[in-house]
Amino acid sequence: MTTTENAVRNGVDTATLFATLDAVKGDPEIAKFQFRATNRWLSGTHNRSTLHGFYGAKQEMTHKQAFTYDADHPPVLVGSDNGPTPVEYLLHALAACLTAGIANVAAARGVALTEVSSTVEGDIDLLGILGLSDQVRNGYRQIRVHFDVEGDASPEELAGLVERSRLRSAVYDVLANGTDVQVDVSTR
Amino acid sequence: MTTTENAVRNGVDTATLFATLDAVKGDPEIAKFQFRATNRWLSGTHNRSTLHGFYGAKQEMTHKQAFTYDADHPPVLVGSDNGPTPVEYLLHALAACLTAGIANVAAARGVALTEVSSTVEGDIDLLGILGLSDQVRNGYRQIRVHFDVEGDASPEELAGLVERSRLRSAVYDVLANGTDVQVDVSTR
Which of A109, A150, B25, B174 is the S-S candidate for A139 at Cβ 3.0 to 4.6 Å? Predict the structure, then answer.
């Protein structure tokens, strides 16, 4: 195969992927990123975030458009269901991060994928956030992700893509291990 | 003021909020929820999640619509920018959860809010996920949330809303403390 035929696999531009890795090896400052969100309260539990600008590769950058997302609570949680709950976005983020990683790892390993789909479940006992029990944590007790992966490799190799992605997933790391979260406020 | 005048504050139906608390006190099984996402890989780092069904209040439920969200990487991270990155959704989820909590706590405490807005920043060194350093974690090193809150209460009371929300936030808990995350796979 020629370089051109190899350049894109699973929709991943592997030539650019490897070039990016080489660039970062030569200048680790390129790898320092800062992502950002802004959020505005609308009414009740309904609010809206915008994701647009970020810092990376030693410069301020923007997505090609500003992405806006609404969150709310459903009626059973005294909201108006104008969007999913905040905790559901965590499940989406986890599936999305692991899936992107699977595609990248497969491309780097020369595996052609035909399907990657997943279901995520998160168990949460709301006695915590409702303030009705000090024995129950506020967040998810457990999150489970199940992947279905199809491609031109052995079952062991396909499962290995998922495992490698998990070991290099930013969202998995934060959800499994937590991170330093600082909250401050200005009032008027 | 009559009960009717008090029933909705900050867009929060406080009568229903307190009735829900009473119902859960009477039957803690009501508080056991399971949220879910499904995700499908599209191409490269581009994939799409759907959030629709969930379990809670002892029954299967659905949002009034299926919410779908795309995630991708920007070109600088070898993607096509068809959506925000998975890690940006974490920042949105955090702001959304804290903001919903602030509105609920304010309503319960009789504080009328006129503005709640926030900015969230997350610092991440991609040497981790790129596999170029074992000293650098994959996820955010730190996340910072700054709130601007305006309402008919003292600065201390307004700041207290944010603090109470943080202490009862499901997303804050998961991001700050981590949780049990299980990943498995079926292959074809």
Answer: B174
Contacts of B133 (CB under 8 A, 6+ apart): A28, B125, B127
Contacts of A166 in chain B (CB under 8 A): 183
Tell me the shortest Cα–Cα distance from A5 to chain B, in angstroms: 16
Pairing of β B180-187 and β B142-151? unpaired
What's the pLDDT tens digit per position in A22-55? Answer: 999 999 999 999 999 999 999 999 999 999 999 9
Rounded to whole angstroms, the Cα distance separating B30 from B55 reads 10
CB–CB contact A71 B92 (8 Å): yes
| Pairwise CB contact (< 8 Å): A127 & B162 | no
How far apart (Å, rounded) are the C-alpha atoms in residues B95 and B87? 13
> Cα–Cα distance between B150 and B136 in angstroms, integer?
39
* Chain A nearest CA to B5, separation (Å): 16
Q: What is the ipTM of this complex?
A: 0.96
